[in-house]
Amino acid sequence: DTEVTQTPKHLVMGMTNKKSLKCEQHMGHRAMYWYKQKAKKPPELMFVYSYEKLSINESVPSRFSPECPNSSLLNLHLHALQPEDSALYLCASSTPPGQGAEPQHFGDGTRLSIL
Amino acid sequence: GENVEQHPSTLSVQEGDSAVIKCTYSDSASNYFPWYKQELGKRPQLIIDIRSNVGEKKDQRIAVTLNKTAKHFSLHITETQPEDSAVYFCAVPQGPGSGGTSYGKLTFGQGTILTVHP
Fold first, then answer.
1. Which pLDDT score, from 0 to 100, does residue B100 have?
2. What are phi and psi of B15, to 5 degrees?
3. pLDDT digits (tens, 9 = 90+) for A6-27
4. Which of B49, B94, B104 lies closest to A50 in CB terms?
5. Do B32 and A40 make contact, defined as CB atoms within 8 angstroms?
6. Percent of chain B, pLDDT > 90?
7. How many CA atoms lie less than 13 Å away from B89 in the CB half-sphere?
8. What is the pLDDT of residues A49-72, one digit of tens each?
9. What distance in Å separates the CA atoms of residue B28 and residue B52, rounded to the nearest whole number?
10. Please, what's the b/e burial string for B63-93 (b: 16 or more CB within 10 A of its CB; e: otherwise)?
């Protein structure tokens, strides 16, 4: 069972389009994450939200814009992407890190293709 | 930042054999060590984790051992089955030395492709 739900599962968009990826969890977690994963590579952290506030931005280009409207939802707004942005985008959630890290649970991801 | 090295990059075993994957890390302050399994086209799935106050943790056929002095931890799979075939990633969080703001940051190893032959 996937407790972190991501939509859409697949997305094809042109470089001039604007689209959004969505992530939802109902585990009561107050930390949510966006990762990017290229084929045959490990996930790379993009953003971390803790208690609905952005706590980590890994120097991600501004064409990626995260948003956390409430404790259950996380969005990633996409605009003017490049072909190299094609990847699997994974959302994860956890209890907020306190004095140490907490287990992160991943969604199934959105496979994004930029034409 | 954290430097994580994972070996081997590929591992091929016969069904019933054991498999061991090892990760080394650089930040001695790290205190939590998860392992993820990712099947083709699927999400990374947390399969086992260990905290620095214990040296070993076991869950059925899967175990993780931790050597904090040497800064390495290993995944052990016994009695392997074809359904264990997947990519396995270790991960290490940013330690407390950064002031606490990077606790959510996981650095992943490069992954091990495990193939279990029937």
1. 46
2. -50, 135
3. 999 999 999 888 999 999 999 9
4. B104
5. no
6. 73
7. 21
8. 989 999 889 999 999 999 999 999
9. 10
10. bbbbeeeeebbbbbbeebeeebbbbbbbbbb
pLDDT in tens, A91-103: 999 987 665 678 8
Residue type at A4? V
Give CA–CA dist B33/A82, Å, rounded: 34
Query: Which residues does chain B have within 8 Å of residue A101's beta carbon, measured at their own beta carbons?
Result: 31-32, 93-94, 103-104, 106
Return the bridge partners of A10, or none.
Answer: A111
Taking contacts as CB-CB distances below 8 angstroms, the residues of chain A near B32 are: 100-102
Name the pairing type of β-strands B10-14 and B112-117.
parallel
* Separation between Cα atoms, residue A42 and residue A38, nearest integer Å: 7
Q: How far apart are CA B107 and CA B112, in angstroms?
A: 15
pLDDT in the model for residue A45:
93
